Amino acid sequence: MKAKSSLKQIAPYQQGKQIQDIKRQYQIDRIVKLSSNENPYGYADTVRQFLASYEPAFDIYPDGHTAQLRKDLAYKIKVSESEIIFGSGSEEIVQMICRAYLFQGVNTVMATPTFPQYKHNAIIEGAKIKEIPTIEGHHDLNGMLEAIDQDTNVIWLCSPNNPTGTPITKQDFIAFMDTCPQHVLVVLDEAYYEYLDKTKDLHAMEQIQKYNNLIILRTFSKAYGLAGLRIGYGVANKQIINQLNVVRGPFNTTSIAQQIAQIALANEAFIEKTSQQNLKVKLDFQAFLDRIGWHYYTSETNFMLVSTPTSGTKVFDYLIQHGFIVRPGELLGIPNTIRFTLGLQDDMYRMQELLSLYQHQNS
Ligand SMILES: *Cc1c(COP(=O)(O)O)cnc(C)c1O
Questions:
Q1: What residue range is the signal peptide (predicted)?
Q2: Both 133 and 202 in a single domain?
Q3: Do residues 58 and 153 both lie within one domain?
Q4: What pLDDT shows up at residue 280?
């Protein structure tokens, strides 16, 4: 049979090795997984308590409208209920955006390096991709604006950017939105919003009425510690949400994900604690990198992108033998770097020891 011709251009997502396989291969019993920016502190106690007495109704379809979570979320982020769409992770909303707005003959503009799912899904839909290199990890917003033409339908901003960790400033964001033509949908992916220093908040949620071409993506997978449940959301004006609802599957988030997200959302103390602990670990690790003289990108997230004296792949191979899984920059399009999640402090001390040793052996 004949598949879409665009499928020939790309390969299925290459999952990292599973923890069990690594344990067996290297004969180690504890693995520290720092490759997917999950929350090392787990999830809120209130979620655990809920699960202890949870009586699942797995025989019943979920509420496709996600009414209860929608109500709480709208109240919390101060938008109207009709301005929200939920997805099986925010990644599914990336898919919906591509399905609704991208097709052969149009183009889409994004940074490079950035979150790879924008490009992946845009290629599937047959759109032309315009990638604008980041400058020291920052989006080149002027370069991105210049790349826009009359066939540009979607532009992707990721702030803070994955994999560089760098945020867009509020001033630059507003200037960008004021200049960007109305016919271009601006996607602002804030997957790491909860980790952002509050003084650097773009306050983009307050801008969705002003900018009719803006959609903001957020997720419960990162700071909320719920990556395994698959739930995230998008916020935009009603017209965009209505169009995305046409392509959305009728029961695209599960009942359990909806219920747990609602409980997690209410627990602000957990998010506060997570971001404070993360900040402590980050500052300590940055001081360590300064001591050994390794360059790093300023990060407002729970991960760091660090330049390495050898290829990132070599550092990856070395660390995995000691039970640490990181992402080699070669897989992310930035050679001679590694990206790793900021884990528990004791694990990060251990990683510092390993990297010091590596620095000795390779300088
Ligand atoms: C992790 C991540 C997402 C997707 O997370 P979901 O689990 O699909 O909600 C989206 N964007 C960026 C930049 C991410 O790092």
A1: none
A2: yes
A3: yes
A4: 98
